[in-house]
Amino acid sequence: MTKRVLASISMCLWWAVPALAETSYWLPHVKRSATEITYTYDVQVPEFFKAWLLEKTARGGGETISKNIHGQTYTFVQQFFSWDIVEHGSSPSRTGQIRIDDQKVRGQSNKWVINGQLQAAADLIAALDSACVPVGTNLKSTWREVDLLALRSETGTPGLTFSEPIPPLAQAKARMRLLLIDTRPGKFYPDVQVPVDLQAYRLAMLEIANLGRRDPNYRRNNKYASNLGADQATTDQGQEKIYHHHPTPPYFDDLSLDDWLGDAAQLQAEWTAHVGTLSHDGPPDYKGTNLVDVGKRIEYFAKSYVTAGEAGGGIDSPEDWMTSETHYRPWFNIGNDVRFVGFGAALGKDGYLYAFGVGGVSKPSTGQPQPSITGGSTANAPGNTSSNPGVARTLTPAPTLVPTTTRAGDASNTQVDLSQLQETPLGERQYVGHITNNRILTRGNKYRSNGTGMYLEHSSDGNLVVKRSADDTFIWGLNEQPGVDYTQAAKVVHTVRQLVVLDANNKVIWSTPNPENAIFLPNSNLLLTEDGTLMVNPAGGTGLPYWTSRPALWPVEGIPPGQELARGVRVFAVRNFDKPKTGPGGQALPREHLYEFSNFYMELQNDGNFVIKGARAENPYVWGLDQVAQLDLSRIDRMRMNPDGRLVALDAAGAELWSTPKSGAIAGSWLNLSLDGVLQIVSPDSKQVVWSSR
Length: 694
What we know:
Layout: H1 2-15, E1 24-32, E2 36-44, H2 47-53, E3 64-69, E4 72-84, H3 92-95, E5 97-100, E6 112-114, H4 122-130, E7 132-134, E8 143-153, E9 160-165, H5 168-179, E10 183-185, E11 193-195, H6 198-214, E12 232-235, E13 238-241, E14 256-258, H7 259-275, H8 294-301, E15 305-313, H9 319-323, E16 340-347, E17 353-362, E18 395-396, E19 422-423, E20 439-440, E21 447-448, E22 454-458, E23 464-468, E24 474-477, E25 491-494, E26 499-502, E27 508-511, E28 524-528, E29 534-538, E30 547-548, E31 564-566, E32 570-571, E33 600-604, E34 610-614, E35 623-624, E36 638-641, E37 647-650, E38 656-660, E39 670-673, E40 679-682, E41 689-692
Parallel strand pairs: 14-16, 19-20
Antiparallel strand pairs: 1-2, 1-8, 2-9, 3-4, 4-5, 4-8, 5-6, 7-8, 10-11, 12-13, 14-18, 15-17, 16-17, 20-25, 21-22, 22-23, 23-24, 25-26, 26-27, 28-29, 29-30, 31-36, 32-33, 33-34, 34-35, 36-37, 37-38, 39-40, 40-41
Helix pairs in contact: 5-6, 7-8
């Protein structure tokens, strides 16, 4: 209490300093999307708050910085605040107290300042609340942080709005936070909780690991292994070899997920969450087997591997492992050539997250090639027949995403031949698919999807939007694109291979990517699917889209043995040149592309129904597990192409709910989708269709 009283007295002394009447400070309302942060400066800082804002701190609070925005230089004051929403209310407005972080490291400050005027400053509190982010390793933690950039203005009317992209690292960390909201009982210990979409959480961890792995300077400021480009690293064990994959940065290929290693990591995560102690000691009796040591866990779950290290941590994993001085080795190939990794995550009753990572080095195999270091085909990866037969195996490379957009200013290779542009003729204004090359979209016209459930429109305010026809629900728009001022959009043009937005001076302000080697590629068609995905496709509808309005995962060769499909994930691919040329009865099969995005896709829907659907309206539903009598779709958690050649539906605990074929399965078969929407199980030698959906 004494410290708080003194803080209040200090505040009174601050107020005695005359304010600079000619200078005003403004706070932003902050809006976050998945990829960017938008700041709208519209809240003027009241006089009583200026003293807090301008307080000089060791962390850099109160310092002025300059930023160039839209070609103009602006001056800002930075400050850092914290509060606890439980002990001190759900926001500062409850109690009128806030903490300034005046130490170099956030959280070491004990300086609370109290003033009841905060309770009445609704606009100020709303701005602070919009800038809040949760902190703390305990997910029950109620700490919130605010990092402010207050705009300094000499005119009193800033009127500034700008957006900044969220770096990939921050995006991955944000996804991890969101994925921990929805949980289910653990696979190994049901009294703990794990993310409902555990695979997505693992992929976010993988993305963070590979972002660091690609950075040659990641450990430059660390004591150990500070030079990743050297032949050897100085470590706490002396000198150890660094296994480079390339002589120049990035030195290492990306890691790939392995579900066998993932089960080893997940068991340990759930066990430590179960006992409430972070440790490398595993369960002494798991189904009659002693798995105390990590080596025993690897032997149990992934016999074809030897461990290259196990790391345990919390909400900041794997970043804290890679920056530490004890758990960094596997992530940078120090001492071992690590190419595969498994991740596990579980929440204990204490609210803490227990995360584990296991790096694996494959044992030499006899008569079987080693796995690709680039995460390619895994059908012949070591261990597919020798590892624990009760555990299905998936090797998941870091996903390849079709870019969603190019940012403003990144379209320097976009050129538009203005002499070729024509207004879309009246007869072509009904459907998106009717918009041909070098056409200007008629402003205000609703270009419908083929099934008319969606429409594309260059709106009167300049925004290019996709909306649902029935209720005008917004699906996608230029207003979401980083750095784009859609109000300046004078023309929207479909050129030869791009969708381009021009301002009144015919300057490109946004465009879809210009495909590499475009001179050798087909012209493009526009497609708007019935789920609101806008695409620029190669003419003829084959091959990878040049651009899609939402990211899509594109495997290289289809669904291999051991691969699992999670709920709500659509998986598309384009290469399928070695699939069978004949089907049942000997009839010829076309040389097809897997999961053609403009034709058909497979998806385990959020309702548990595994379906084949068409992106076009004429084929909204082709086949699904809802046709199977007495199958409880709501229990289906994931689909797996089993190594034994069966396609199986699994519940959250891994129990089989449905499988096919009932007999005649061939181990090592792959899952295939034909151009006409037929799901097929194809033999490993690509000579036989073992099962098909029709």
